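Please predict the structure of the following assembly.
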Amino acid sequence: MCGRTCCHLPVDTIRRACRYIDYEGEEQLPEWKDEDKYFPSYNKSPQSNSPVLLSRLHLDKDADPSERIIASMRWGLIPSWFRDADASKLQFNTSNCRSETMMERRSYKVPLEKGRRCVVLADGFFEWQQFRGDKQPYFIYFPQTKTEKSFFSRSVDEKVWDDWKMLTMAGIFDCWEPPNGGETLYSYTIITVDSCKALSDIHHRMPALLDSEEAVSKWLDFGEVPIHEALKLIHPVDNIKFHPVSTVVNNSLNNTPQCLEPVEIEDPYLSYARPKATTKSSQKEEPELPKRPRQLMQKNPTPTKRNSAGLMEQWLKKYGEAYNKKPKIQ
DNA sequence: CCAGACGTTGTT
DNA sequence: GTCTGG
DNA sequence: CCAGACGTTGTT
DNA sequence: GTCTGG
C-alpha cells in the first residue's frame, strides 16, 4: 500500500529529472502548473501536495498529446460532485485506489473515463512491516545508476540528487470546484496492486509503478492509449530496492533526511526463534512468522507489448527502449 | 420511484 | 474502535 | 501511512 | 454526478 512518500527535491531538480522525448523526437522539460503549491518534504502524507505528471491535453485543448506537464496536486481524490465547501470533510478514504475494482468505483471510474490518468512523482515511498505488534518502516525506491548508498549519508552533497531516478506511480486525478467559489482543486489517488515478490515480506500491497519511459508515456497519453490498453500497465513491478529506516519517519511532522537513512535492525526472523512445543496439549496454532526481508537483484523490466498505432507506435520504435539512457540536457 | 452512498487499509 | 489532522 | 483525539459547561 | 438498495 502507499500512505507516505518522500519528495524532497526542489522544483528545478524535479523538472530536470522529468526530461523526456516527445513524439517529434524533441527533448522536453515539462512546465510546472502551480509550482508554488509544492513544498518539498522528506515526509509527505495524504492531504499534502506533490508533483504529478499529466498530458498537457488536459489543460490546452490543442496541445500535442505527448506533451507532459507537472502539476502540484492534493493527495486524496476529491470527486467532482462533492458538495461540502471544505474538501477535507470528505467522509471516505481516497488516497489509494484498488486496481482490481477501479472500473466499478464511482469515484474513480468517472475520472478514468475522462482520461484523467496521472503519474505521481516521489523520491520513493514508505511502507511499515508489522511484527509482534511493532512496526518497522522501510524506504522503497527505484534502483539507481549511482550506488544507492551515495544518497543516504548525513553529509551527502545535495548535488548527488541530480542523478536520482524518481519513483513513478500510476494515479487518477479529478477536478473539484469549491461550491463557494475559488480555484479548481486538482487531487489524485494512487493505484494499488498486490505486492511484488521483492516486497511481499514487507507488505501485501504496493503502489502500481510505471518502470519505463514507455509505460509512463502510455499511462499519460489518454488520447492515443484507451483505458483497456492503459490498464495492462497496472501490475506488480519487481524492479525495486528498499532498506529499513528509523521510526523517526512515523510522525509526518518529522521532515528530515534521517527519514531516508538506512538503519540496522534486529533480524525479525531470528527474533522469533523460540523452543518448539513438544506436547499435544500445547499444540496451539503458531502465529505466522514474518520472513526475513531480502534485497533481491532484479532483471531489467520486460518491455510492454506495443499495440497502438500512429505517432505513438513510431515514437515507441525510436525511443521506447531508450529507457535509462537519459540524454544530456544541452 | 427516492434515499443514500460514493473508499482503503488491516485484523484477532 | 474510529475518525481527523499532518 | 501514523499520531492523537475522542467533550461541554462556564470560568479566570 | 451516478449508481445501488429498498
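The first strand of chain A starts at residue 5 and ends at 7. Confidence is low (pLDDT under 50) at residues 271-308, 321-330 of chain A.
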